[in-house]
Amino acid sequence: MIVHIVMFAFKEENKEQNIQKVKKLLEELPLKISELKSLEVGINFDTAPRAMDLSLHTAFATKEDLDSYAVNEEHQKVVTVIKEVTEFTKVVDYIV
After folding, report:
1. Is residue 46 within 8 Å of residue 7, measured between CB atoms?
2. Residues spanned by the domain of 14
3. How many CB atoms lie within 10 A of CB 78?
4. What are phi and psi of 28, to 5 degrees?
5. Residue 61: what pLDDT?
6. What is the CATH number of the domain that holds 12?
7. 68 conformational bin, left if phi > 0, alpha if psi -120 to 50, beta if neither
8. Model pLDDT, residue 33
9. By CB neighbour count within 10 A (0-12 exposed, 13-18 middle, 19+ buried), where does 35 fall?
10. Confidence of residue 83 (pLDDT cuts 50, 70, 90)
11. Which band of pLDDT confidence, cut at 50, 70 and 90, is reported for residue 48?
12. Is the pTM here over 0.85, yes or no?
């Protein structure tokens, strides 16, 4: 199994609304992308300077499924929104 984790740091402008919007968009992806075996989105409550605002935890059967997800049109629509409202993201992918 492949685990794909992304953490997001949002821009300050409309931050709370944008976090909720992106969370909703991400949570709709399993209905549209069959390669997604699981998806969990969490909003951070930690106020430490190193904390990120939102976290995405997904799982895929194979690396090829992750690669397919990455270029999927529905995923790319969400990526476009994310790029508009975030400062930066961090990612980690690993095999379980």
Report:
1. no
2. 2-95
3. 18
4. -85, -15
5. 98
6. 3.30.70.100
7. alpha
8. 98
9. buried
10. very high
11. very high
12. yes
CB 23 within 8 A of CB 87: no
Indicate the DSSP class of residue 62: S
DSSP 19: H
Q: Which helix (H) or strand (E) holds 86?
A: strand 86-95
Task: Report H helices in the chain.
Answer: 15-28, 63-71, 73-85
Tell me how many domains the chain contains.
1
Residues 29 and 72: their CA atoms lie apart, in Å, by 10
Residue type, 1: M
Q: Which two tokens stand for residue 92?
A: 């980690």
* Residue 1 · residue 96 · CB < 8 Å: yes
